[in-house]
Amino acid sequence: MNPYASPQAYRDTSVLTASPEQLVVMLYDGAVRFLRQAEVAMDEHAWQHGFERLGRGEAIIDELLATLNMDAGEIAERLQAIYVFCKRCLVEARLQRSTDKVRHVVALLADLREAWVKLAAAAPAGTPQPAA
């Protein structure tokens, strides 16, 4: 079997060749995917699986927080506030077993993702990213 034809090899290549903006979009994609999985599991009362998926989504939000370029000014500050809000909502979702809170975070992240997709499409190659 050709190791370069595997889905993992494709993902690895995608990450290695992506622009900073595209990497942020990939992080949003992952967070939204895990949070939607958490929502489904919680709706089915599969709490352990749902909480594990919530944890993965939270870890991606942590990565988005950790990689923010705070030198970017107001944009970075606003993103930081949104990410902290999302984290708080997910903690509340776990404590209250609330899929509504998970859905709210998914909607916020989906909106941010769309903005980053537009930014990635508009940014010329090699341009520094304004904030993460």
Describe, in plain words, how this protein is organized in 3D:
By secondary structure, this protein is an all-alpha fold. The protein has five helices and no strands. The protein has helices spanning 7-17, 20-43, 47-66, 74-96, 99-122. Helix 2 runs antiparallel to helix 3. It starts with 6 loop residues before the first helix and ends in a 10-residue tail after the last helix.
Layout of helices and strands, plus pairs?
Elements (H helix, E strand, L loop, with lengths): L6 H11 L2 H24 L3 H20 L7 H23 L2 H24 L10
Helix pairs in contact: 2-3, 2-5, 3-4, 4-5
Mean pLDDT: 88
Tell me the total number of β-strands.
0
**Low-confidence region ranges:** none
Radius of gyration: 16 Å
Strand content: under 5%
Could you say which structural class the secondary elements and strand pairing correspond to? mainly alpha
Count of individual helical segments: 5
Instruction: Specify the helix fraction band.
Output: over 70%
Give the biggest sheet. Answer: none
User: Judging from the principal axes of the Cα atoms, what is the shape?
Assistant: globular
Distance between the termini: 37 Å
